[in-house]
## 1
Amino acid sequence: MMRIHAQLKAGEFPNCRKLAEEIEVSSKTIQRDIDFMRDRLGLPIEYEPLRFGFHYTEEVTGFPSIEVSEGEIAALFVAQKALAQYQGTPYERPLRSAFRKLTDGLKERVSFSWSDMEDVISFHSAGATVADLELFETVSQAVLRSVELEFEYRKLKSSRYEQRRVRPYHIASLDNQWYLFGEDLQRLQLRTFALPRMQNAGATTTRFRRPADFSIDKVLRGSFGVFAGGKKHRICLRFDAFAARLVSERKWHDSQRFRAAKDGGAVMELELGGLEEIERWVLSWGTHVRVLQPRALADAIAEQARKIAEMYP
């Protein structure tokens, strides 16, 4: 919007096509920005047919500022730092562009020492996913437009791709990974797809109506991360004193409950719809945790422990 404002103020009579080419966005995006500037910010913008462009009908000395509190500015800073994990990925350019649009209107009214906060706030993300921006745009647009999506997908434990046709309901970033949630039309079930394992995605012209009762919160309620099965499992884990302090400091799942033990340890209870993700999490704590329930999880951990021991004779 600051680019649009500058050209309007200079009397250059910019139009949507010209601005879209210069800023490298769509003409619809430019039109939405102009509408926002005129209708929400109260700027005197009109289209001049003889000049084939927009202009200010009266003098505008400065771009209207957006009223924000220092806390909101701090929140913007935190958002900026969080986005830094995508530096060097295909997402960096559009994210920076979006952030500039959010903050351009603040420059006239807010003076804030970013460097002070940089000294005390930072984000470090391990294993951020590498995703194809073109694929992401195809998938996200299919979700927004409610059209069926076709793509090739490779399961985690498979070496070959399979053709899928899905009604995409929701796209989410979970644990630094993008996932698509939708109805698999071959299996007639709600399935979860990791975007890095998708290829050759294409939106169809077949529209659908997303179920009114679909809720991503409900879908994830039975999972310890992303994937949830149909069967409910009551999980009971015994942590030693060292791990108990660390585990109890975080919220891992909505159903979690802790009971303190006399030796300083703790018992953690939760209810999940699958065991695969909790198995990997339990293994990450090594000898600091013991599975009390269910037996299937305890057996799976014991089997993995035997295999690990065999690797180090």
## 2
Amino acid sequence: MLHTDFAPSPLPAPPAAADKAAHAGVPLPLNTPVASVDAVVEALRMVFDPEIPVNIYDLGLVYDIRIAADGQTTIVMTLTAPACPVAGELPVQVAEVVAAVPGVGEADVFLVWEPPWTFDRLSDVARVALDWY
């Protein structure tokens, strides 16, 4: 099931059994308004899996988004397969795109492999784009 109703978390702790795959950004200056989860989701929709013509959010690769009160943002995601050829590049791209969102300071991306990604995680948008409905 695709998560669409994220709530900002005050202290985004790294998930257990996750590998920190990428980091980008710098801390926000004090009193800077913090980004909304919707703004981060829109940025994530600009990142595409190079093998599948659908963005990573609608593919269901993003499992969690946490935004702290200081703008530090944590993305927990997976890949379509552990041996994915973009495993080293895609998390870096995600961190950079998220860190560029106004109101995001530092962005950390963690890769998890449980639960494994399946086609059940595709959003309706992805299913239509791929003609899989």
## 3
Amino acid sequence: MPRTPPFDFSNPEDITSVDSILFHLSTLKSATSNFSEENKLGQGGFGSVFKGTLPDGREIAVKRLLSGSGQGLKELKNELVLVAKLEHRNLVRLLGVCLEAQEMMLVYEYVPNRSLDTILFDSAKSEQLDWGRRYNIISGIAGGLLYLHEDSQIKIIHRDLKASNILLDEEMNPKISDFGLARLFGGDQSGATTSLVVGTFGYMAPEYVMCGQYSAKSDIFSYGVLVLEILTGRKNTSFRDSEQAENLISYTWEHWIRGTISEILDPCLGDQWSRSEALRCIQIGLLCVQEDPANRPTMSMVVLILYSYSESLQSPSRPAYCARLSGGMDSDAFRKGYNLSTVQGSIPEIPCEDSVSEMEPR
């Protein structure tokens, strides 16, 4: 069973120095049938996730770090320190940690419908996401991001918001997960710059891909891409070698300016969708993926728009990636941005304006 950690909580560098619960390795082995393949929910670059059941009947998800993964340890520590301080209905809840016999694991609440991408992009399952559920998912993710950016005791930039990091509970309510790449901002800090770009291309804002600059507006860009995916049922990478458009953003933009938005909505919706809500969501999505971060709305504004039908919206201009790709500029980096998965690497040597208030701490 969980036990109280006998460590010095005053040491901020100690991975155990958070208000969390330590689980015995034996408890987690028993809960997951010794981490059996039958209980494996998924696998990532730094480890696997297993479903388990505690003696009191609670279902859990156990993220087990691969042995010897230095970067994985860094991300686990980062996630533990940040998530332990957060509590919101649209964030996955951290229950504890196991640090025993050279094992390193995070223990979360189990979310039964797994990740959004497993349903949204599966033609056999996507009908489970009717219009009401999609609008609720879009609104719930917005609420979770608003909490991270503005309403929690600490300001957090997620940096890897994508469909596979949105989990769905038994009622299809969304919960943001995976804070391994998240960054904490303090005081009046509004942004930072890094020479090491990490995240998932296709969801990453242009200023981050090209210049390593990230802020709350970077998350908002990712949210915009995610909104368009939820509406269309199409991955942002599904336009590879397509004659329709370079990417999901440009595809949506072309239909927006033509007034043919009904043609981009997921066909499984049929005619069971709200035109006013669909217009509002597409407009939000396009505003969130504007090239200039200053032209993207804040999450408080997005939430207000989603819940207040009287709130007026500005018209979006030609969005990021779409503008560059159609403007005759060298678009190799941007095409890569829609053809690759999770990456980590140095940013290209491209001159950028310094538009953030602070540099990332070393």
